[in-house]
Amino acid sequence: ESESGQIDEDIRPITQEIGPIPTNALLPEDFTYLGAFRLPDDFAWGALGLSYYPGGDGGAGSLFVTGFQGLLDGSYEPCYEGSQGCNGYFAEVSIPSPGQATNWEDLPTAPFIQDLAIFDGGLVQTVHEAYSFVSDIAYVPQQGSQSGDKIYGSLNEWYPEGSFGDDSFPTIWFSDLDGSNARGVFHIGPEEPPFHGIKMGSYLFSVPQAYADQYLGGRT
């Protein structure tokens, strides 16, 4: 306000009309809270990324979940500069019936279907063994000439300016559903801005096929 008590025009709230809400919009009353569940303690400092796998757990559906955020060496210790044998991990867990509890420790725990295992084949450490971290995971059905369904992983960097300066870095790899036969690491788009690794190395998701066909040459 000014000294006269009038609201300054520069800070006056902007109002605009809001059109009708689409009839197919999801509204708060469309949701019912069912509860929650917890992951095993093995995911401490992990579970940054997860993906639903519809064919998992005998067709009931399961979750692929990333392990420790940073890379771990052969002794399951965090990797530092100069470390060898550094890898990214994931696991598959079943989805228990959700529970409701005041204490989170009383929630049901998701059982392992596949224990924590390597799914990058050592590829992430080729970008940087200490500053690279696993940022997400995604289940992707068989594409093109692939022999089966895959899981894709993405990485990002904690200190890209110090490691790469203005240069970019690759962010994507994929493997078989058990984590074997990893391939990559691939760049998203060209290696120069605006397709920089720090922008592309985060969330993984599939876009609708219609959108992919119109804008992305069919790539989902």
Please tag this protein with its features.
four-stranded antiparallel beta sheet, 3 helices, 21% strand, mainly beta, 8 strands, 220 residues, globular, single chain
Give a description of the structure.
With 220 residues, the chain is mostly beta strands. The chain is built from three helices and eight strands. The strands form two sheets. A four-stranded antiparallel sheet has the order 1-2-3-4, with no helix packed on it. Strand 7 and strand 8 form a beta hairpin. The longest helix has 7 residues.
Whole-angstrom Rg:
22 Å
Question: With helices defined by DSSP (H or I, 4 residues minimum), what is the helix count?
Answer: 3
* Largest sheet properties: 4 strands, antiparallel
Q: From the helix content, strand content and strand pairing, which structural class follows? A: mainly beta
Strand content: 15-25%
Taken from the alpha-carbon principal axes, the silhouette is: globular
Topology (SSEs and partners):
Blueprint: E1 50-53, E2 62-66, E3 89-94, E4 112-118, E5 132-140, E6 150-157, H1 160-164, E7 172-175, E8 183-186, H2 197-200, H3 209-215
Antiparallel strand pairs: 1-2, 2-3, 3-4, 5-6, 6-7, 7-8
